[in-house]
Design a protein that fits this description.
The protein has 15 helices and seven strands. The protein is an alpha/beta fold. A five-stranded mixed sheet has the order 3-4-5-6-7, sandwiched between helices. Helix 4 (42-50) packs antiparallel against helix 11.
């Protein structure tokens, strides 16, 4: 049986890489990734708004050409209007009291203003029972599904864009549903959307990044636990005390594995979009490995994600100063377990 090569270079590592979150973790990741997903598609969203100012419904033709999923587009509008799940549920329950019914067409309708002109929009699907984030597929777990535009999404989009100028605004809390008034005004749209997202992302992006890191680490611990006997201690967010490292009680690692007096420190980084974390880890890689080796310990890295491999210089540096470098999959983590068994036997 061929000996496993643990200290791979970047090309060997990338040949085993997943690049995107494993299927087993997609739901978990999606639940904490809504805002990062919106930020990542913000420029595309702004572009759609900028070239959609001729008529109130032109935006749906532009949206179709852009291929942005209808549920993702609607989530952008929900964030801009600050019109969350509870408000949507309330709108669903009270819809017939909020928007008038045309006795001839049997459709409810909304009268609104755009560019100083009055328009009428006849709802295609609303009202519907159970209106909410789940039905619209705009909650965390469902936002990764690519849903096409239909009558329900068009109805909700019209409300979220033009509701503030309708006669029903005060009845359903639609005062912030105002982005439709800016359609086609490139400068105003860019300013409005970016300012709104600055407020949102300041609050949520840091928490989301931290949660994603925890998901990545938990998965590594879970697979290692399946492969390592009980004689091995596996610790999340641990520290290793070193004779040549005296900061804050020891050198921190995402995962620490111990058997007797032998130890392996593991760093886990999974980044789908580019991020400076990998640069920081690369800058520390040589000194961290040297300090670990001086005390007879080993250091390993789990590196994956399309964003990380865009920073090839940083990943190459880490590979150079790593005793074991693996990608992010169950099979790859099993190789890390084999490395740990070999070094800690």
């Amino acid at each position: 049986m061929a000996k496993i090569k643990f200290n791979r270079n970047i090309h060997e590592l990338e040949s085993h890489a997943e690049k995107w979150w494993p299927k087993a973790l997609e739901k978990q990741v999606a639940e904490v990734s809504v805002i990062p997903n919106l930020v990542a598609t913000q420029e595309q969203f702004i572009s759609i708004l900028k070239i959609s100012g001729k008529t109130p419904t032109q935006i749906f033709d532009v949206l179709a050409a852009s291929q942005m999923p209808a549920n993702l587009f609607l989530k952008h509008l929900v964030v801009l209007a600050d019109y969350g799940g509870e408000m949507i549920k309330r709108l669903g329950r009270e819809f017939a009291d909020v928007f008038p019914l045309d006795p001839k067409t049997k459709h409810h309708f909304m009268q609104f203003i755009m560019a100083g002109k009055s328009y009428r929009y006849d709802f295609q699907r609303l009202p519907v029972s159970g209106l909410g984030n789940t039905k619209l597929k705009i909650d965390g777990a469902a936002i990764v599904q690519e849903v096409g535009m239909d009558g329900l999404y068009q109805d909700m989009a019209m409300i979220l864009m033009f509701g503030s100028t309708s006669e029903a605004a005060h009845l359903a809390g639609l005062e912030k549903c105002e982005i439709g008034a800016l359609l086609g005004d490139e400068t105003a749209i860019s300013k409005y959307v970016r300012e709104r997202y600055i407020n949102v992302s300041r609050i949520t992006t840091g928490a989301s990044a931290n949660s994603l890191g925890q998901i990545a680490q938990d998965y590594v611990v879970e697979i290692l636990t399946q492969h390592l006997p009980q004689a091995y201690t596996i610790e999340r967010n641990g520290k290793i005390v070193l004779s040549h490292y005296d900061k804050d009680g020891g050198m921190p690692f995402d995962v620490v594995v111990v058997k007797g007096k032998k130890k392996v420190g593991v760093e886990v980084t999974f980044q789908v979009t580019t991020n400076s974390v990998i640069e920081r880890k690369a800058g520390q890689a040589e000194s961290r490995q040297a300090a670990m080796h001086q005390d007879g310990y080993w250091i390993a890295y789990v590196i994956d994600g399309a964003g990380n491999f865009q920073r090839s210089s940083a990943v190459s540096t880490i590979c150079r100063y790593s005793d074991c470098t693996i990608a992010y999959s169950a099979d790859e983590i099993a190789i890390l377990a084999a490395f740990i068994k070999e070094k800690l036997q």
